[in-house]
């Protein structure tokens, strides 16, 4: 194992996490539609002259977001939202360079074995898909609607999460050695950790939809949802296809459905993690420190979710919203690492 390669992979993981947090800030500040062109070369240069700013501002004025929501905004207000979208795109370009040049160097030095090269090629493919979905997401808000499509936003966010997990898997594969464990421990642990990971990823996807719909604004209350444990539309929460169609903006029920399921699955995940940690302490399923960290992460995430809800009066709070997504990234990553480390890499004792 080469130390330089190991550090390079870790830097990649950290940079993707930062990019996802930048995406959250961009979304929460309403900055995502401020740049209306996808220019790979010229888009890397920040506007420095009044003429450049007038050019970009005039393009933004043609968008539905400006015409329906931000009409009359000042150039300084535009510069603020432009900065976050520009930084988000610039960071993606920086990640490309940080990945590409060391990759070529390590290949030339023969530091990368075949398995690692294959894993990294999958990472490259997924990165290209994330970038493409990012533009498809932005394009969805440049015609007719004044914001991006919630589902396209969620797919972009979820595929970015898959990219992160692929790189984490690549790192684990590079540093890990298989060991033997007892079959009775493996089977229970595998089932529990797989369920937690799948639920946490689905919850992450729902969180993207909830963010895209700004669903927190329709019920900024806790523990009740607008004075009810289950919304008045409870009979309709199972009719998701009807209300969550492509015209979800026309439904006042859709955000409540998403919020209800997002809350419900959060409680289920917390219960499963708590149960797993208790059993882990009794039967020594995993490291006690790791299982405790797992419980702490899910607890922090729920608290952040509650505060994000309570302060979502009129608009989503930037600090709580960004932190909520950051800890969500850490929790989904941790659930994946637990499952992969303890259930895939380790072999059953014969």
Placed side by side, the strands forming the largest sheet appear as 1-2
Order of helices and strands: HHHHHHEHHHHHE
Number of domains: 2
Low-confidence parts lasting 5 or more residues at pLDDT below 50?
Answer: none
Number of strands: 2
Count of DSSP helices? 11
Distance between the termini: 28 Å
Taken as a percent bin, the fraction of beta residues is under 5%
In round numbers, the mean pLDDT is 86
**Strand count, sense and closure of the main sheet?**
2 strands, parallel
Gross morphology is flat
Q: Determine the fraction of residues in helical runs and give it as a percent range.
A: over 70%
Going by helix content, strand content and strand pairing, the class is mainly alpha
How do the helices and strands line up, and which of them pair or pack?
Elements: H1 3-28, H2 50-60, H3 64-70, H4 75-109, H5 114-139, H6 150-175, E1 180-181, H7 183-213, H8 240-243, H9 254-283, H10 288-310, H11 318-344, E2 347-348
Parallel strand pairs: 1-2
Helix pairs in contact: 1-4, 1-6, 1-11, 5-6, 6-7, 6-11, 7-9, 7-11, 9-10, 10-11
Description:
This protein has 350 residues and is an all-alpha fold. It has two domains: 1-175, no CATH class; 178-350, no CATH class. It is built from eleven helices and two strands; from the N terminus they run ααααααβαααααβ. The chain has a two-stranded parallel sheet. Helix 5 (114-139) packs antiparallel against helix 6, helix 6 (150-175) packs antiparallel against helix 7 and helix 7 runs antiparallel to helix 11. It is flat. The relative contact order is 0.11.
